[in-house]
Amino acid sequence: MIGWISSLLILLAGVAICVAGINLIHEQPALGGLLLGGALGYYLFSFFFIPPAGVGAWFPLIGFAIGGVIGALIARPLYMVILVLTSSMLGGLVGLVISYVLQLGGSPERWKQLSLTINLNDTLQVWLMIIFALALGFLALPFEEFMTMVSTGFVGAAMFVSSLVVLFSGSVALLRNPVFIFFFWFAVGMGGLAWQNHSQQI
């Protein structure tokens, strides 16, 4: 039950970040910092930290709460920190995808067998995530507005799609297909980017 609530929370936060990321960061920085910091905390606590005994399924939610509070507090005075972290999250995703491409090649059958998870024992995957996280984090400095829309569009899309996979992959076969998941994420991210760009021109 707690896992379902956590996934639903990330799904809703992902939708908000994907379609309104730049407005959240510029016009409602506390809310934007809450959602983005919460998402970062959620995934850090899910993949990189070992939960204490007895915490279990609550651990990612604790990460969301801690990250969200920190993000909300620093979003206004340290706006660029939030932007660099969000761009770095996108860089980590790009590095993750590239590691899959390099290791699996172009075989459709091998791609269908892929497990879309972070493997901290995979040196190539970890280094690619670090390199691209640093690269896109630095790009956020000279290309502030563009990177805000791109990073929030695709990070929000990743949150949305990954939550759908957790919630509905048991009953929806397409959500168990890594190839479909990748293109679905890309399409949602492009849609979020286009919507944010359109909202800025109104």
From TrEMBL:
InterPro entries: TM7S3/TM198-like_dom
UniProt domain TM7S3/TM198-like: residue ranges: 9-162
One GO cellular component, as annotated: membrane
Location within or outside the cell: Membrane
Membrane topology (UniProt): Multi-pass membrane protein
Membrane spanning residue stretches: 6-25, 32-51, 57-75, 82-104, 124-141, 153-173, 179-195
Alphabetically ordered keywords of this record: Membrane, Transmembrane, Transmembrane helix
One Pfam family of this chain: TM7S3_TM198
Superkingdom of origin: Bacteria
Main localization category: membrane
Name recorded for this polypeptide: TM7S3/TM198-like domain-containing protein
Source lineage: Bacteria, Bacillati, Chloroflexota, Anaerolineae, Anaerolineales
